[in-house]
Amino acid sequence: QVQLVESGGGLVQAGGSLRLSCAASGPTFGSYVMGWFRQAPGKERDFVAAIRWSSSSTFYADSVKGRFTISRDAAKNTVYLQMNSLKPEDTGVYCCAAVRVPGTMAPASRFLYDFWGQGTQVTVSS
Q: What confidence score (pLDDT) does residue 52 get?
């Protein structure tokens, strides 16, 4: 069983930065994809970024490319989301997710992820 615990959310002004962390526990994560999703009030949970644990290949939503960076620290079993140049539309609850997927790609659909953290609130003020 995979357990995910997010931290690092908060209130920041537009243009600022935050770094989210997702501490993972469970099996060996070699074939896993770790993803970040966000959900704004009244909206769907949207894909933000993902990383393949074994290769560190990264994938991003178009809306965050060039501003957000996903990475992982294998020694700490932790995935990070560095968020720069934040905008008010980045506001939402950010959730970490995991799924075991062989291959080289990463799913962007929330329906394909099996394990979820509880989420951390990010609020960007204008």
A: 96
